[in-house]
Amino acid sequence: MPVTNVRRTLLGVMLAMLLAMLDNNIVGTAMPTIVRDLGGFEHISWVVTAYTLATAIATPIWGKLGDLYGRKLTFQASITVFLLGSLLAGAAHSMVQLIEFRALQGIGAGGLAAGGFALVGTLVPPRERGRYQGMTATVMAVGVVGGPLVGGFVTGHLGWRWAFYVNLPLGVAALIWVQLLLRLPAPARPSRPRIDWPGITVLTVTIGSAVLAATWAGTTYAWTSWQVLAAWALAVFGTAGFVLVERRSPEPLLPPRVFTGHRNFPLGVGLLAAVGVVMFGSALYLPLFQQTVQGATATDSGLLLLPMMLPVVLASHLAGKVMSRTGRYKVFPVLGTLLLTAGALLLATMDTGTSRLTAGCAMALLGLGLGFTMQMATTIAQNSVGLRDMGAASAATNLFRTLGGSLGVAVFGSLFARAVPATAAGEAYRQAVAAGTRHVFLTVAGVCAVAFALALLVKEVPLRGGPGGAKTHQPVTPSRDEVTG
User: Fold this and answer.
1) pLDDT per residue over 301-319, tens digit each?
2) Between 395 and which of 21, 114, 410, 431 could a Cys-Cys bridge form, CB atoms 3.0 to 4.6 Å apart?
3) In 376-421, at which residue ranges do the beta strands (DSSP E only) sit?
């Protein structure tokens, strides 16, 4: 496609992806009003957990369906499921109904993420992808910053139900846009597509157990309780069982060749898991610190995230331009994870006297690190697989980012709960929140340091679609030196 046509097409894809990115932030702002209207405060955490769990489970399934039956069709189907869940959630009359419909939304959201990145990987060779990274980063920034702003405005002027109904016009526009403009090359499908039902079943149990264990630990149940230990054990055995099932499946849900074809793929998903930890932790605990300790309103805290999100856009755009022009990319995740570690360490020093300017400078380092790491890690992973597995590979990258964020937030919740006693009030509460925030970002810094070590292990191979790179979407074959370590 000509560059102009690609940009027009990707705008529709990005609009659909924006739905999922906006949704959680909008709903989070509306939750106090929802609880006052529907009651069921004891179930409030499940409004988020049901959505996250369904997203994590559905992501690889949507990715594989796209590989088997066509990415355009499955992407449109995921938009439709998400819109149906939004419509029903807006009409919910109890907290239980809302949780059920949020799970349906989450199923659709898994397809929006997996399908969107797979479409980018299909339309744009890795060497040329840098031209479009700024678009992706801008959409993510709008989702994080715009969510609280839209949520506060819609809830205050139209009612909480419009926190869900606002998805409908955006989703319909995305459906029409994709239908009219998206043109894909004919996929290389198997003659008789088979759905890997055993793999789907085992993966569902495994992911569900891991997310529930992380969600329960330190909050609903103690870390050493039998419920949490049993859930972790089921997740471990489920992982081993999933590997065995996938090796024997004629059309595996997550093909083992994706993970074993080149060492860059597992390194890429490892980097994205760390990115998920940073993004989820920052989106949850920075606004809490700003509102509780620094006295910002819910709407203001969205604007106060700009020092982090604007550098994401700028760094992603810069890294993409350099990658497209030179074909070099390893330096960016190395530099990015170093900046993430530095930014998290600075945020771990915040207390009740920290100014907004000081916090903003630390957040800017975090944003630069995300911009240099996030899109590059996705490109590194996708450049390691063939076009036939692009959907499964994109699903895997989104799955690990979601799992990283979900598990990280669960651990953060336990650390935060220990730092903030239930009886704390007034100034003691502010100090406790500041202490809990320090614990969170000290843990984030540790995760980013591990990600830095992973980035150093990335092997810089030629990107497809440029000089010295493969002209077609073929998997990269590891050399003997790489296989032997």
Assistant:
1) 667 778 888 888 888 888 8
2) 114
3) none
Q: How far apart are CA 351 and CA 448, in angstroms?
A: 22
Contact by Cβ (8 Å): 67, 142: no
CA distance 426 to 95: 31
Cβ atoms of residues 401 and 275 within 8 Å: yes
Highest-confidence segment of 48-57, 78-87, 167-176, 288-297: 78-87
The residues near 7 (Cβ < 8 Å, ≥ 6 apart) are 132, 135
Locate tokens 């331009």: which residue? 321
* Residue carrying structure tokens 């049993």: 230
Neighbours of 342 (CB within 10 A): 17
Q: Is the dihedral of CA 292, 295, 299, 304 positive or negative?
A: negative
Q: Which residues of 199-230 are buried (b: 16+ CB within 10 A; e: fewer)?
A: bbebbbbbbbbbbbbbbbbbeebeeeeeebee
Report which of 298, 309, 293, 299 is spatially closest to residue 354, judged by C-alpha positions: 293
CA dihedral 420, 423, 429, 432 (to 10 degrees): -30
Contacts of 321 (CB under 8 A, 6+ apart): 130, 131
Residue 203, token pair as written in the block: 């993966």
Token pair, residue 51, equals 């959505």
- Residue 478 per-residue DSSP state: P
**Average pLDDT value for residue range 282-295:** 82
Residue 36 has pLDDT above 50, yes or no: yes
In the 8-state DSSP scheme, what is residue 45? Answer: H
Structure tokens at 388: 């036939």
Instruction: Compute the C-alpha angle 229/233/234, nearest 5°.
Output: 120
pTM for the whole structure: 0.76
The token duo for 143 is: 């989702």
Quick count: other Cβ atoms within 10 Å of Cβ 256? 12
Q: How far apart are CA 85 and CA 387, in angstroms?
A: 31
Q: What is the pLDDT of residues 63-97, one digit of tens each?
A: 888 877 788 888 899 999 999 999 999 999 988 89
Does residue 210 contact residue 167 with C-beta atoms inside 8 Å?
no
pLDDT tens-digit series, residues 192-203: 667 788 888 998
